[in-house]
Specification:
six-stranded antiparallel sheet, 3 helices, 6 strands, 33% strand, globular
Length: 155
């Protein structure tokens, strides 16, 4: 594994957490360095490295929101360390590790008027590092069959 620190301006993203995969609605120039030339249509949960990471992040965001709604928000608790796998870097086997903190919550729309309500959460990324991950291990079944064939051929 190789780590390369990411140095840029502020890296922040505003996400509509009322959408199933946390659609990105705004972002800083620093975030665009992570996501490539266009962040349009990005869904943050699809960037999480594996389903466990995705569920963990979603639970964390929901807990922060619940604390906010009950006036119990503790900024120190609304920080999480994540491993991301931006789709456009997967072919290069590059992942990103970062610390994410909840910076702001805004609610748009009005449930009383019939307009759909959206919960927009701003996440700031810090301690960002690029990690070159190892290649996936070969399929054991394929290795075993090839090895077995080699033994049979040598008999």
């Amino acid at each position: 594994f190789r780590r390369v620190l990411f140095r840029s301006g502020e890296v922040a993203v505003w996400v509509d957490t009322s959408t199933p995969l946390y659609k990105v609605v705004r972002y800083t120039a620093g975030f665009s360095e992570l996501c490539g030339p266009s962040a349009e249509g990005i869904e943050l949960l699809q960037w999480m490295k594996g389903s466990q990471q995705s569920h963990m992040f979603e639970r964390w965001a929901q807990n922060c929101f619940n604390d906010y709604m009950h006036d119990e928000l503790d900024q120190d608790k609304c920080v999480i360390h994540v491993k991301l796998s931006p789709p456009h870097f997967r072919r290069f086997k590059l992942d990103v590790e970062a610390t994410v903190e909840l910076a702001e919550i805004e609610m748009t729309g009005d449930a009383d008027s019939g307009a759909s309500e959206h919960i927009i959460m701003q996440f700031k990324f810090s301690r960002i590092a690029w990690i070159h991950s190892r290649a996936a291990p070969r399929n054991r079944h394929t290795q075993r069959s090839t090895h077995s064939r080699a033994n049979i051929a040598s008999i």
